[in-house]
Amino acid sequence: MGRDINDNMPTQSKLELIKWLLGRTDSLRNSYGSRAAIVISANAIILACIIVFIDKRLGAANFLVIPLVVLSLVLSTVSVVLAIMATANLRRNARTGTGYNGPIRQFLSPADMFANNTSFEPFRDSFNKLSEEEMVQSATAELYICLRFQGMRYAWLKASIKFLLAAFCALALSLLIVTMMS
Q: Whose CA is closest to 19, among 142, 128, 116, 127?
């Protein structure tokens, strides 16, 4: 394997690169949150349509339509849950959520930081003793965890959209059946 591009990169440059990459993951997380909000809003519209549909349209086509309406409701609910998972980390901590087993992420993870520093003095001492190379290692670990979570958020959002589309299709099919039977 070839030489790493970072072999000769100064520590300060590594920190700047990691800072930029972490900023980028923040932008992605915000983007996923905005998209998830749109998915949840679309699901609210589907749920409102289901309520209106049940109130106004059910009649002779009940035996065909009720299973489709229930299916649409279930799919929409799953879509909302997945969208929430895309915006909020429901894992207890990053280690269990990503399988990360590396060293602590000094000053980047409250769970890691305060496991060893229960008062201000040890916290201050840890900060004063921190080397640039240790900071690079901590920041690299944080970047790894952020990227792993981004992958999970993307997968949950993608699945949420698929469930939303399936819920819409089930609702549209039920409306088509009622229209044809009317």
A: 142
